[in-house]
């Protein structure tokens, strides 16, 4: 059996020792991605990227840095997600700062962004004016910022009920270079938006049924904001509100794009059709689960997943 790696704070501990020791601690704790988590935390504590961890593997680590790394490791072992510890997460083409009132952006939501960009490009080909869309529950701003970065003619009304989330989103928009086109609005859904003022609405709303919240992984249940998770008794409360208000705020022919939970496509389709929308297309995630839906007012296109 190989000898255990030195403790990160031990005399003479190197960058490689810290990485090996943290991997061992995380593997022993049966974390889902121990090697990746260890690399991310060691890199953050030492301010090194993946290449730097290799090139400086033999460098000694100061006691101060070792203590900082140990504190981060303890947070991870207590269940805090690694990106919450880092305070940021990469999404599409940008890194987004996190805060307690923002949902941590996840790869599945990139499917919604890609489908939305597809819808926007069709609309933009038919008009010379800027496309104005609302991102409901903007959180970090990941959806809105990513869509703005793809096309300079777009304008985003970034809606959230949490002031801290809007502050974080504003910072992220500025860092991505789209701050002038990113317009934060504190509002309960679209209640503060006028009739016929939007070309499109996009949202990754809360869609988990209330009864299922306690069964979520501790990383989600304890560290993501409950407002971004709890979708009411059947998980569909937000969709009812968004569909009704989007029908009021969208211009004729406007688009509505939504992320959904597993198996919710039928119920969400019924809700949106009742509000005057027709399904245009859907998109599956990497697990081949239908994850995003595109609706349009007065549109009769068949469903094409």
Written overview of the protein:
This protein has 305 residues and is α/β, with parallel strands linked by helices. It folds into 2 domains: 15-86, Helicase, Ruva Protein, domain 3 (Orthogonal Bundle); 89-297, Vaccinia Virus protein VP39 (Rossmann fold, 3-Layer(aba) Sandwich). It contains 11 helices and 9 strands. The chain has helices spanning 15-28, 34-46, 50-55, 63-77, 82-86, 107-125, 142-150, 163-175, 218-221, 237-249, 265-274; strands spanning 88-91, 94-97, 131-136, 154-160, 182-186, 198-203, 250-259, 277-284, 290-297. The strands form 2 sheets. Strands 5-4-3-6-7-9-8 form a 7-stranded mixed sheet, with helices on both faces. The model is unreliable at 1-6 and 299-305 (pLDDT under 50).
Strand and helix map with partners:
Elements: H1 15-28, H2 34-46, H3 50-55, H4 63-77, H5 82-86, E1 88-91, E2 94-97, H6 107-125, E3 131-136, H7 142-150, E4 154-160, H8 163-175, E5 182-186, E6 198-203, H9 218-221, H10 237-249, E7 250-259, H11 265-274, E8 277-284, E9 290-297
Parallel strand pairs: 3-4, 3-6, 4-5, 6-7
Antiparallel strand pairs: 1-2, 7-9, 8-9
Helix pairs in contact: 1-2, 2-4, 6-7
Anisotropy-based shape: elongated
Radius of gyration: 22 Å
SSE succession: HHHHHEEHEHEHEEHHEHEE
The first-level CATH class of the largest domain is given as Alpha Beta
Low-confidence stretches: 1-6, 299-305
Tally of domains: 2
Beta-strand content bin:
15-25%
Given helix and strand content, the structural type is alpha/beta
What fold name goes in the CATH topology slot of the largest domain? Rossmann fold
